[in-house]
């Protein structure tokens, strides 16, 4: 098995529990160069809000999209967009990534922005 398969295998258990609860989830994906966040409805069918370091307004603020500072900017932005969509509480889906570094920075910034999870 390669790293991606192992990560998705770890993510499956969390996603099954979130789906069982029918909770709105904040899911995170990180690559070497960028970080992405989406808020997905309880059925998993629709993306309600999204933010990433590939967006033009975010890129203009940052020198590099693959660090903790960039993740914090995306966390604040996703919290603002969630508030605008009327979402206050989410389940955090780290997609099998370790809660450390960029994933942790995004989560803490989203909490500071007013999301509850």
UniProtKB/TrEMBL annotation:
Coiled-coil positions: none
Alphabetical keyword list: Ribonucleoprotein, Ribosomal protein, RNA-binding, rRNA-binding
Example of a GO cellular component annotation carried by this entry: ribosome
Domain of life: Bacteria
Function (record text): This is one of the proteins that bind and probably mediate the attachment of the 5S RNA into the large ribosomal subunit, where it forms part of the central protuberance.
Subunit annotation: Part of the 50S ribosomal subunit; part of the 5S rRNA/L5/L18/L25 subcomplex. Contacts the 5S and 23S rRNAs.
Family assignment from sequence similarity: Belongs to the universal ribosomal protein uL18 family.
NCBIfam families linked: L18_bact
Protein name, entry field: Large ribosomal subunit protein uL18
């Amino acid at each position: 098995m390669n790293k991606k398969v192992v990560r998705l295998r770890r993510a499956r258990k969390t996603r099954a529990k979130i789906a069982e609860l029918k909770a709105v989830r904040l899911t995170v994906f990180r690559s070497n160069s960028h970080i992405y966040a989406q808020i997905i409805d309880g059925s998993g069918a629709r993306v309600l809000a999204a933010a990433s370091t590939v967006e033009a307004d975010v890129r203009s603020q940052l020198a590099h999209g693959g660090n903790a500072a960039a993740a914090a900017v995306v966390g604040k932005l996703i919290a603002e967009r969630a508030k605008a969509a009327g979402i206050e509480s989410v389940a955090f889906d780290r997609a099998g990534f370790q809660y450390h570094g960029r994933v942790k920075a995004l989560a803490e910034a989203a909490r500071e922005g007013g999301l509850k999870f």
